Amino acid sequence: MTTADEVIEVARRSRSAAIGLARLPRAKKDAALQAMADALVAATDDVLKANADDLARGRDNGMAEGMLDRLALDEKRVAAMADGLRQVAGLPDPVGEVVRGSTLPNGLQLRQVRVPLGVVGIIYEARPNVTVDAAGLCIKSGNAVLLRGSSSARSSNAALVDVLAAAGSAAGLPDYAVQLVPGVDHESTKHLMRARGHVDVLIPRGGAGLIRSVVEESTVPVIETGVGNCHVYVDADADLDMALDITINAKVQRPSVCNAAETLLVHRAVADEFLPRVLAALHDNGVTVHGDDAVTKAASAHDVGGVVPVTDDDWAAEYNSLDLAVGVVDSLDDAIGHIRRWGSGHTEAIVTRSLDASQAFVLGLDSAAVMVNASTRFTDGEQFGFGAEIGISTQKLHARGPMGLPELTSTTWVVHGDGHVRS
Amino acid sequence: MTTADEVIEVARRSRSAAIGLARLPRAKKDAALQAMADALVAATDDVLKANADDLARGRDNGMAEGMLDRLALDEKRVAAMADGLRQVAGLPDPVGEVVRGSTLPNGLQLRQVRVPLGVVGIIYEARPNVTVDAAGLCIKSGNAVLLRGSSSARSSNAALVDVLAAAGSAAGLPDYAVQLVPGVDHESTKHLMRARGHVDVLIPRGGAGLIRSVVEESTVPVIETGVGNCHVYVDADADLDMALDITINAKVQRPSVCNAAETLLVHRAVADEFLPRVLAALHDNGVTVHGDDAVTKAASAHDVGGVVPVTDDDWAAEYNSLDLAVGVVDSLDDAIGHIRRWGSGHTEAIVTRSLDASQAFVLGLDSAAVMVNASTRFTDGEQFGFGAEIGISTQKLHARGPMGLPELTSTTWVVHGDGHVRS
User: Fold this and answer.
1) CATH number at residue B193
2) pLDDT band at A225; cut points 50, 70, 90
3) What Cα–Cα distance (Å) separates residue A27 from each residue in A31, A88, A166, A173?
4) How much is the ipTM here?
5) Residue span of the structural domain in which A83 resides
6) How far is B388 from chain A (nearest CA, A)?
7) B7 part of contact set with chain A, CB < 8 Å
8) Are A340 and A353 in contact (CB under 8 A)?
9) pLDDT of A420
């Protein structure tokens, strides 16, 4: 069983690395990221061997095919991880950016400057690419990273961190800039979550259960990410062709991700015209519709595929699959009320030609992102032009929506005086 | 004993108020703040009557004189609270500010817009003026506020909230915009701290013990405020007259507050010259010096007052009194190491004429504010020109240093497209 002392000891090393990292100029961090990318490609065989161990253990433990696929690496996936590091090297350095500044009437000169957070802990599930992505983003933003991956990926993660840490140190990063949390038992995670003062922030990446448990148990500040019960609302004034395209794109283009739509709400005024079309298109795309009474009637009247009766669990669900809850609402306000009640505050889209409706929808909701006449799938760091993303925050503190490099920083006030004292 | 249901019920009312508050334009919020200020002055007698009950109970319970003074209200203090509300009315509204924006290559139009946090919980100790200050800042930033004051101020707080809530509602604020958390027992606080989803952020204001317990127990996101073990470092290249002024100001001008200095570190190169002067001045100002060996020797050699031997507890202490830990360090790096080990990350000051030293000090530390040739006492929302302050954050997420109105907001991404879908 992993002890608190073991975890704290490793976190202390991260802290010493963080102090050095905070002072590194961009050029050195970028050179290290390039060296890490090269080393990763050179070590492909070792990484794949370690990954084969994980896969064999997964199969022995009866891991589902989908999970095995997420866990599996090949030459191409390793190369893609290395490319990710090179891409991060090309992004601007957030550290040192002056966010605000002024000279006060008494002559004091104020600057609010971006600084690294310090030690960033990441708790994540199966996919080993997160190991490399998170390490790259943390290094670039001047943070030491403490990685707590899934036990099912432990051999892959250990091999990846070995390569990254050695290459980073050789290229001039402080030692211990990239570390794994010791242990793969629950105690290991627990001690990480209680390491307040040693770890500056924890970012959980994974399913709703993982995120909830981190939020509940952690005394280290947490950035909650990723649970997405996203809605598309088709307004009375919608362009129905556009509504059809957006609905299908939001649901079908990549159903496993957090910015995919999970619920479609249709204004009653256009339900008779829109429902037969959208139900047929959803059916053609293999989507299982969980519908309310109006939807069920429309489906049977127009013979456009079976509808499963919707339940409260469906309205609350983040399916991450080819399922969609569909309902008819009497008004824009009802749509807003429904989303406020059942949504997770991730992304909601309205399709409308009405300026009033679009503004009421934006003002009435309380989500990280609101799309007007665009697919929910656009809530994404790369799509927003951030170049990379550590996750999508659904909480309101610190960062909300896609988190890029600036969201991995804090700020400090630097104040210059000339002997100023308060009177 | 207060039940979870009672607290949640009140928080739900706050949520309904928050939805209305988020849409209120500045003019309506300002008018309500002015009306609340007028009502407060008009209700002075009632407020003072309630305050007398608190004071009587405090005396019966043997409350210390200092605490009684913090609790006591008079006509002037009530008028000052009302003036505070009027001052907040005069500040710019952070809600609706566009923080960032761009048009993506595909034509999507992105705006990141400030929105209220929603429901803000404040847990605080004796002083009833916090009730009015916090209510004013939360209303101005479009948030509903849930106040959990000290049980010793319960009558004063109830009277103040009655006045504010009634005047606010009459002036057009949604009902329940300003509420007290029901109950004055520990259960009441506990349920507030577990009301994740109902309360968006908790801000504890008070002593280290209160803040630690909130940080440990809360599942609602917390902004840690105010523990200040602030340092003044007198460098080898310091102007010693300036160093003397800054040290005395930082320690003596208002010792009870979080930005007062608690430790003085003196470079060995100037210790012989500076220590006799600063020790004499500290002594003249009634300061008890907790010194290391070098300080003790200097004091006795120059007969400038007694020195209490310093302990590790002193280096860690936030005295909030006329006590000061004083030590001699061999180098700037030793000063940085000392501050990193013992500091609370609030504010540190360096006195130096050396540009190199000032830059090394700024880069080497990890505090909310670093002063170069200025007193630590300047870390303050009013001093920084924010107009008002809800507290001083010593954590790294969301806000760091003095928190004004923008720090009481989150952001949302508003994205406009023209039928955009992802390919």
Assistant:
1) 3.40.605.10
2) confident
3) 6, 12, 19, 11
4) 0.94
5) 4-224+398-416
6) 15
7) no
8) no
9) 98
